[in-house]
Amino acid sequence: MRPFRYERADEVSAAVTTLVREPEAAYLAGGTNLVDLMRLEVMTPEVLIDVRRLTSDRIEELPDGGLRIGAAVTGSDLAADLRVRRRYPVLSQALLSGASGQLRNLATTGGNLLQRTRCPYFQNVTTPCNKRAPGSGCSALEGYQRDMAILGASPACVATHPSDMAVALAALDAVVTVAGPDAERRIPLTELHRLPDTTPERDTVLERGELITGVELPPPHGAARSRYRKVRDRASYAFALVSVAVALEVADGSVRDVRIALGGVAHKPWRAATAEAVLRGAPATRESFMDAAAAELSAARPLPGNAFKVPLARNTMVSTLLELLEEAR
Amino acid sequence: MSDVTARPRAVGLPMDRIDGEQKVTGTATYAYEWPLDQPVYLFPLQSTIAVGRITGVDGALAEAEPGVLAVLSHLNAPTLTRPDDPELAVLQSDEVAWRGQFIGAVVAESLETARRAAGLVRVDYESRPPDVMLRADRDDLYSPVHAAAFGTGGGELQDGSPADSVLGDVETALAASPTMVDATYSTPMYHNNPMEPHTAVVTWSDGELVVRCSSQGVTMSRALISGVLGLEPARVRVVSPHVGGAFGSKVYPHSYAVLAAMAARIVRRPVKFTLTRQQMFALVGYRPASIQRIRLAAGRDGRLTAIAHDVIEQTAKAKGYAEQVGVCSRMMYAAPHRRTTHRLAPLDVPVPTIMRAPGEAQGMYALESALDEMAIACGLDPVEFRIRNEPEVHPESGLPFSSCHLTECLREGARRAGWDRRDPAPRSRREGRWLVGTGVACSTYPSPRYPGNAATIRIGPDGRYTVRIAAADMGTGTWTALTQIAADALSVPVGQVEMRIGDSALPAASVAGFSAGINSWGTAIWEAADRLRARLRAEHDGIAPPEGLEVTAELPGGNPEAERYAMHSFGAQFAEVRIDEDTGEVRVARLLGMFDVGRVINPKTARSQLIGGMTQGMSMALFEHSVLDPRFGHVVNHDFAQYHIASHADVHAVEAHWLDQPDPFTNPMGAKGLGEVGIVGTAAAIANAVHHATGVRIRELPITLDKLVS
Question: Where is the Aldehyde oxidase/xanthine dehydrogenase a/b hammerhead domain (chain B) (predicted)?
């Protein structure tokens, strides 16, 4: 770990100004990922700007029936919130399936969205990695591929985004509110994270100095039931090989509305828009679900070491949809 | 020696750990926590190439950092007197033999400074492509000639046994057999991963070296450390009262202690050094990967006629290590024709070491999987098939077993597991989306007694006893169990006995390993107690004299009965697994073990050992797997987020039971080893249950969902 300076700003604008001014600065919230990466010298900020007390740690009702989640709300608080559990069970389930109780007590909503990939080559400074050291090469492309992407990857980077929470938020059409040097802006969650393309060092579309201040959830969709299903290498405390966040609304035997997002398969939470389009208005049957999953995964380009993720993602999507269908009856 | 049954009192009682309160209140002092006056901190440099040569070291930037006291490398390290052991001979040459090897160190006033400065040292290399992949078709496999660099024993395998064994004519028997199994099983590298990282806290004073570390055997640690540093053993003291887990990795590799001792001698200050989790994956050993071909032949009567077990295992080019993977096939089942072989693949990898049930853990996965395949091929129940093929005597040596109640374990275990309700057809049981299956496998592990033990018992004028022996408690409860043994041997309540262990200044003791601890140390304590009682009676009318009385028993040899009997613990394990048909996720709903481990000294700590072993066996079966990168030569998944050990959520019902039949020949207590037998067979029981649930036979551990999803 390299020496660093610690600063605490009194207001958001001051924090943003400081970050823009300092050439090597980073925001610090829960620190559950950043501090690990600093120990490993994967990230080497010279200044840490503590923003934990700057943003809200409250969950508030919005006039339209949605919720506004302050960026400093912890994973534990968000998962336990009664409104979240009742109206957005998929979000609570996703949070509880990630990390550990201790980590969730510390980790914040904003930080969760901005956590870095757990690609083992990214986290090891002695191996090449385009995300950590642009131009050095991608070690995973010919290396250990179990946790790597099957959708939307590039020859420069095949890493996956590790967040469970973000997958649920992607399915829920959440919007991220951001404060920046010039103005505030609102970014749909599905557009916050990037695909790697030729610049995998950039995880998100955030510009330098921009700070996440909160996440807004639209009102829950009608009678939709939602669920988060995470498949991993052990029953707890492991990142998703594949996860699925699903909200399903069925009327008269047909799919009225459906939201599907996948985790563990791409550089970003993967909203399965193709599958959704196939399903909307289609009969709510196993066959439709299979067709939808197949359509979504036709774009999959697995590596030899993660080809299993294609049938795994398909099966997990179908079985989760079937479970929700079963409960709706 | 008298028999324990004459005076059992504490032995057999579920005593709480005597160090339990200290541990739960945080007052048990582990090595790194030892308070020192003005210590300095060491952070090591590790090679970032797997094989080649160091061409330059530039420590100028590091040395310029405030608080840095020294930058060590092979260029300035003191010359060691035993450069023949490439693992212990740290910083003695410019050669790099594996990635992550120690190539230097920074010593500084704070850990943070040392770690920061270590990142500033520039090292240049001349690198060659590494060769780290174990394959059966390699053309450089060799028969191990001498693995004695590990320990002092001779022999070709690490336990002292020969590399190969032949009886009868396996090939002819296989050709003539109506039923045959020919299958190849593989196991990956596993890392021991104790909770407490390997640590050395070193002080030099007046030419004497004190090493506080986490060790499975302070007597042997002292011998190795003093040897490599060229010191009289009497001038080295190794102290290790509490050990936060070890699983074998704290027996041999002491390179970190040597490095810390070097640094302490140079900076003339006490040095603290503990490895990070990531460093442990390159520096303190691991269970080597194996490829095992098993061939079995059986007659129409369901009796085995041939057993062949051919093992290929990984070892380090830097230092040969040959594990006894196939020895279980020399003794488990009867067959007139039999053969075992061991061949090593020399790779540019870190040096392997002992890991819980070295050899048997991997070997019994393969053998007991093959037995299951053969039982099915013969149309026999796997429990009955095993009983039918149990040997009368050790099939190779012809020696009778000192005790063997394997059939009772199988029958009683089957009864408790509800085995009679089992439909043998694969995929015959389904509960919702779960496929459910059950499987059985046997467990075994030798029960040796080690030479080189001594125990001293002193009775004070107050009638209280102090027992001294340099034994080790790895967190398993040894301290408590030895106290119970001493109390019974002395015929006094446990409260009158104080047990001192974990210090090389105490009478010599063999290591905590090979399930030999209680057997070896307990026997020495028993003998000392007998002698003390005899002298008290003969010289003092049985009453402690005012000046006290002290007796030492030295047992230089092992168990003389080992010439006449084969001594093993046994067990039968039953697993119930559930597999999500959509995702291939495997959950172990129940594990039940029935064990033959002789007399149990302390049921509480014994159960903990056995269910711990079974849980580790489940972890070996389903999760753990060190992934070597063939280009870089390092373990890719080198932390607890990526190297998956069973989490609490993975562990459901785990039951350990035992027969409690004392062994007449192992030791005066009638105990057999139980530290390792619990992990042996678990993986096969689970793999067999997975086959029963799904119809899919997985012959490559771990059984991860990618092998089952479709």
Answer: 25-129
Instruction: Return d(Cα B349, Cα B355) in angstroms, integer.
Output: 16
Strand order in the sheet with B95-96: B95-96, B52-58, B122-127
| Shortest CA distance from B618: residue in chain A | A234
> Is A234 in contact with B632 (Cβ distance < 8 A)?
no
Phi/psi at A18 (5° precision):
-60, -45
Report CB contact under 8 Å: A144, B636.
Answer: yes
Same fold yes or no, B4-29+449-558 and B34-129+194-246+250-283: yes
Cβ burial of A72 (10 Å; 0-12, 13-18, 19+) is buried
CATH class of the structural domain B34-129+194-246+250-283: alpha beta
**Where do we find the tokens 């950039």?**
A202
Dihedral (Cα; B167, B169, B175, B176), 10-degree rounding: -90
Q: Do residues B90 and B77 touch, judged by C-beta distance below 8 A? A: yes
CA-CA distance, B80 to B255, in Å (whole number)? Answer: 12
Contact residues on chain B for A144, CB-CB shorter than 8 A: 627, 629, 636-637
Q: What is the spatial distance between Cα B190 and Cα B254, in angstroms, rounded to a whole number?
A: 19
Q: What is the CATH number of domain B4-29+449-558?
A: 3.30.365.10
Ordered by start, the domain boundaries in chain B are 4-29+449-558, 34-129+194-246+250-283, 165-190+287-447+564-707
Q: Whose CA is closest to B261, among B285, B233, B225?
A: B225
Structure tokens at B193: 């991963």
All domains of chain A, ordered by start, with CATH? 225-328 (3.30.390.50)
Partners of B571 in beta bridges: B443, B595
Q: Is the pLDDT of residue B152 over 70?
A: no
Name every residue whose Cβ is closer than 8 Å to that of residue A138 and which is 6 or more positions away in sequence: A121, A128, A129, A130, A155, A156, A157, A158, A200
CA distance A26 to A9: 13
Beta bridge partners of B566: B401
pLDDT tens across B365-404, in order?
999 999 999 999 999 999 999 999 999 999 999 999 999 9
Backbone angles phi and psi of B444, in degrees to 5: -155, 155
Of B246, B270, B249, which Cα lies nearest the Cα of B260?
B270
- Continuous segment of H or E residues that includes residue B388: helix B382-388
- Give pTM, 2 decimals: 0.97
Q: What angle do CA A165, A169, A175 make, to 5 degrees?
A: 130
Interface of B with A in 647-676 (CB under 8 A): 647-650
Q: Per-residue pLDDT tens for B166-216?
A: 999 999 999 999 999 999 999 999 999 999 999 999 999 888 999 999 999
Catalytic residues of B: 676
* Residue A179: strand, helix, or coil: strand
Whether chain B has a CB inside 8 Å of the CB on A122: the answer is: no
| Contact state of B641 with A308 under an 8 Å Cβ cutoff | no
Q: Given CB atoms, is B139 within the 8 Å cutoff of chain A? A: no
Rounded CA gap, A100 and A236, in Å? 8
- CB-CB neighbours of B33 under 10 Å: 14
CATH classification for the domain delimited by B165-190+287-447+564-707, as one of 3.40.50.720, 3.30.930.10, 3.30.365.10, 3.40.390.30: 3.30.365.10
ipTM over 0.90: yes
Tell whether B110 is within 8 A of chain A (Cβ).
Answer: no
Q: What is the pLDDT of residues B236-287, one digit of tens each?
A: 999 999 999 999 999 987 899 999 999 999 999 999 999 999 999 999 999 9
